[in-house]
Design brief:
By secondary structure, the chain is mostly beta strands. It has helices at 2-13, 305-317, and strands spanning 28-39, 48-58, 63-74, 84-96, 103-118, 124-139, 144-156, 161-173. 8% of the residues lie in helices and 32% in strands.
């Protein structure tokens, strides 16, 4: 029977099934056990069944402590001896391997006491050291584990030895609830509304003139209009309609460099001295008459009446001018 249990423990230890952690930290355990108690031959006791119960607490996934009580009603092998009730009280420490599997092997060691109560003779109590190996197989949502282990019991000061093998069911109580996964609420990204800083109706992302004064009409690029293309915006241009290519001042008006009243782009004499009357082309006034006196006379013939008329008209056209008339004869 003992060999069969050892073989079963080895077979179970060779199988593993990956799942969530089975040996739950922070859980209490209660384990009713049943098995066999083998005694040294010098004790003259037959191998006898025993029962017991263990109360434990899982310190972590790997480590646990457990208090265990067992009772054996051992039969004698020799009629010269008596049947004996044997009780053990132990505090054990367990270390679990691969606690995240359904199949969890462990090693165990602990201290306690063993108490023998023969039918006759006096009772005896000894210090007890035990160690061993075992395995748990979890099922039913990790709440229950089928358990099997083997213990070597050493008594002190009497050097008596015995062996216990057992099976049982471990009930895992107070298993902590799984830590809820925090739900991170995703905040919607704020909608970036394009701005129109200068309020001209053209959004900043396309506005090439973002400081347009309020109320000024702009083009599709957000820039004030320049109807005549002279480089001066209409709202500053005092001379709208400047011909293309004509140089203007900062008010958008054509230049008159010599101040003769004829704009530079029409002025063919741009260096006329100040105060000099000029013609429409900006050049000083000048009238050339082709009139000849008669031979050896200061008389002008009628054939020159048209020239005289032209001179009169010219003088009338410029009444503010002073006219000097010179004549020469021989």
């Amino acid at each position: 029977m003992f060999k069969k249990i050892i073989y079963l423990a080895v077979l179970m230890g060779c199988i593993s099934m990956p799942v969530a952690a089975e040996n739950q930290p922070g859980a209490f355990t209660i384990t009713p056990i049943y098995g066999g108690h083998l005694f040294e031959s010098n004790l003259s006791l037959e191998t006898s069944p025993f029962w017991g119960v263990g109360l434990g607490y899982n310190l972590s996934e790997n480590w646990a402590i457990e208090g265990v009580y067992t009772r054996t009603d051992a039969d004698t092998e020799d009629i010269s001896t008596t049947d004996t009730k044997i009780e053990t009280y132990r505090l054990d420490t367990l270390y679990h391997f691969q606690p995240t599997k359904k199949l969890v092997p462990y090693i165990v060691a602990g201290l306690g006491a063993i108490h023998s109560s023969p039918d006759i003779n006096s009772n005896e109590g000894h210090l007890l050291l035990n160690y061993g190996v075992g395995i748990k197989y979890f099922f039913l949502d990790d709440l229950i584990a089928l358990r099997a282990d083997v213990r070597h019991l050493l008594e002190f000061p009497e050097p008596d030895n015995s062996l216990q093998y057992s099976v049982g069911l471990t009930f895992q109580l107070g298993k902590p609830a799984p830590t809820p996964v925090p739900v991170v609420e995703e905040k919607p990204e704020p909608i970036q509304v394009p701005l129109d800083s200068d309020g001209d109706g053209v959004l900043d992302n396309v506005d090439q003139c973002q400081d347009t004064p309020a109320g000024i009409t702009v083009d599709k690029n957000g820039c004030p209009l320049d109807s005549d293309g002279d480089g001066v915006y209409d709202y500053h241009d005092s001379c709208l309609g400047t011909p293309a290519g004509v140089q203007v001042d900062d008010k958008g008006c054509q230049l008159d460099t010599d101040g003769d009243g004829v704009l530079d782009y029409l002025d063919k004499c741009q260096n006329t001295p100040a105060g000099v009357s000029v013609e429409a082309n900006g050049c000083p006034l000048r009238l050339t008459l082709h009139i000849n006196f008669g031979h050896d006379s200061n008389k002008i013939g009628s054939e020159y009446d048209n020239e005289i008329t032209k001179a009169a008209q010219y003088i009338n056209n410029y009444p503010d001018n002073t006219v000097f008339i010179d004549g020469h004869t021989d």
